[in-house]
Amino acid sequence: MSTLFEPYTLRDVTIPNRVWMPPMCQYSAAPDGPEAGAPVDWHFAHYAARAAGGTGLIVVEATAVSPEGRISPYDLGIWNDTQVEAFRRITRFLVSQGTVPAIQLAHAGRKASTDRPWKGGAPVGPEAHGWQPVAPSPLAFDERHPTPDELSVERIHEIVGEFRAAARRALAAGFEIAEIHGAHGYLINEFLSPHSNHRTDAYGGSYENRTRFALEVVDAVREEWPDDKPLFFRISATDWLDGSGWTPDDTVRFAGELHAHGIDLLDVSTGGNASGVRIPTGPGYQVPFAARVRNETPMPVAAVGLITDAEQAEKIVANGEADAVLLGRELLRNPSWARHAARELGGEVHVPDQYHRSV
């Protein structure tokens, strides 16, 4: 049997295969009003199609723990019960197809309040449903972004509480796995990296201080998340800044600490915290970062980044470079990628009864 289509168990949750969908924002929620941040028909159709296509685990896109934590005004959120009820429709369908539903809990930090990518993605103000971003330090992401407000210690503690409350709501919404977003230059990543964190208090300076906020969030979410359900953490393994930012060595060190704090799997990506850097992209270019964490720590990992064909994905898992692969753009192009890969590799995947005539 194909290694890619072997089940994978974390705590008491068994994922039917190693073909997973990473969080990918759809920028399709209402920006304000009573339905702000709640998933709509587009979200249901988008995720349902990938579940019907055989994807083993779907991580719902970055879902903000507060209104100011959204990347754009059109992002999903999970700060109220209206959103919880809307998510239940999605999780019920995913479970009915044998797919494990997961959700990424997020705060965008200094990269918040931007327009949708197809509108240019520029920062937006109150006249376009925007707001003032916040961050560890008053440092703009780039020349287009405004200078964020520096978070007070009191506000940092409040945000930890918002992650805690979001985890409680995610559980009520029917999610089996939660992922904390600590990557791509958003708030937790901003605290981790000396490139974006210039604080001089208990949340800045040393490695121990810069990782404090992330570990407080992990502890708060883990306390709410049941012991029988897994908790993931997404990390940018490097800022691509030649040692002046967050580094692969930091990632390996931190992976061990996250594991000790109850994280069950590290979702390994890179970049996003520094503008203008050159990233040497290519097929599977981020896989070595995941493989290093897997080989040097007790932490299971998922790999992501230009993984496109079945043989490539099979080798990554079979060779022990990662425990699973996350396919982003490829699943946007082909919602039934898992079914097609299973046919090619000789694996088995769930097929809806309605589709059996085409198998």
TrEMBL record:
<dbReference type="InterPro" id="IPR044152">
    <property type="entry name" value="YqjM-like"/>
</dbReference>
<dbReference type="GO" id="GO:0003959">
    <property type="term" value="F:NADPH dehydrogenase activity"/>
</dbReference>
<dbReference type="InterPro" id="IPR013785">
    <property type="entry name" value="Aldolase_TIM"/>
</dbReference>
<keyword id="KW-0560">Oxidoreductase</keyword>
<dbReference type="GO" id="GO:0050661">
    <property type="term" value="F:NADP binding"/>
</dbReference>
<dbReference type="GO" id="GO:0010181">
    <property type="term" value="F:FMN binding"/>
</dbReference>
<keyword id="KW-0521">NADP</keyword>
<keyword id="KW-0288">FMN</keyword>
<keyword id="KW-0285">Flavoprotein</keyword>
<protein>
    <submittedName>
        <fullName>2,4-dienoyl-CoA reductase-like NADH-dependent reductase (Old Yellow Enzyme family)</fullName>
    </submittedName>
</protein>
<feature type="domain" description="NADH:flavin oxidoreductase/NADH oxidase N-terminal">
    <location>
        <begin position="4"/>
        <end position="345"/>
    </location>
</feature>
<dbReference type="InterPro" id="IPR001155">
    <property type="entry name" value="OxRdtase_FMN_N"/>
</dbReference>
<dbReference type="Pfam" id="PF00724">
    <property type="entry name" value="Oxidored_FMN"/>
</dbReference>
